[in-house]
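step 3/5: co-fold with magnesium ion
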Amino acid sequence: MTNIVKGTKDILPAEAALWQTMESAALKVFGRYGYGEIRTPILEHTELFARGVGETTDIVNKEMYTFEKSGRSLTLRPEGTAGVVRSFIENGMHRLSPPVKLWYKGPMFRYERPQAGRLRQFHQVGAEVFGIEGPAADAEVILLAVDYLNALGLPDLEVELNTLGCSACREDYKNNIRGVLKSELKDLCPDCQSRYDKNPLRILDCKNLQCNAILAGFLNQPMNPICDECGAHFDEVKKLLDAQNVKYNLNNTLVRGLDYYNRTVFEIKFGLFGSQNAVCGGGRYDGLVKTLGGPDTPAVGWAMGMERLASLLELIEPEKTDAYIVCDDTSAAFTLASQLRTAGITTETDLSGKKIQKQLEKAAKTARYAIFPGGKQAGVKNLATGEQVSIANEDLISYFQNN
Ligand code: ATP
Ligand code: MG
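step 4/5: write tokens
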């Protein structure tokens, strides 16, 4: 027998329900914000990611699934933004009146060490807004992410917020990090020692525990000096979030793993997963469209890891069925179930002729009410309180509509 590929996963029916929930909430919330769905190919030319994600990133250096066909190097997409930007340019979307708002979902591939919440084929849902330079777009995409998580019943999230400034600010930021870490250099991991010269911002994103411990000592030190313009932009983002009661923590060591970010960057975390605690990451990437051959176009967006979302949703108690018909007359149960479902009441019934006691046990686990049909009326038992009432058949539907 051939086994499943390491780092990939089957989604079986019991779990697929969670995925349908994530997808339908996405349709609803993105629709409310006026985003259109875009579906780009999983296969792209390797150079798209080399240029778009950045040659010095872990993704491009170590994590891509790349192969040759007819002399062309192709890669299974490791993330969604580069493909969306390619399509944006190729389809002339820069000529549309801004903002152009797009969302996507689908599988991504990264050759990483598999562990809980970290797979080699995983899924992201993401959003991108093109054409708006001002801070309202940053605030709107963050609010969109928060609204989406709230719509899924996940309120206890932590938004971490930082600004990387413009390219001039970033040079100062890098030099400050070099200054602060100079005396600690020998204790950083080998990767970070080479990042120190090439791209010290990356050190802040390292997963190595010793590097994390060293950095923790500098958490409150102001390291990212930003120019007046970038400062005003960031202040306005915070003001807009405050006005919507979006809680956030300022974190001046927050950077993102990809090269293309500028100004606002953010992550959304849940305290549950150790180092796999980030469920959403994003920010502004004003240079990317131009880097990939399009006209200068500001942009901001985010991506969420759907496996990590699914693990959070698993912790929420599944919603119970309204009614479970407990009855040894399969045909009567079938007819009543059909009437209730037609009226919009979620109804479960046993079609296998199980003993009444077994049916009741299942009802107690999965439903709010048990119904015991009996001639012209039915017993209706509230399974949370144990209270039972007798309801005339013709009043059953309205009873459920009111309870
Ligand atoms: P991490 O710091 O956890 O490696 P990242 O910075 O590489 O994340 P992004 O590239 O910003 O992540 O992707 C956005 C989201 O996609 C992450 O917050 C996470 O929820 C999810 N994600 C990234 N890589 C994986 C993976 N290998 N398996 C599962 N989910 C992932
Ligand atoms: Mg990563």
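step 5/5: annotate
The CA atoms of residues 188 and 213 lie 10 Å apart.
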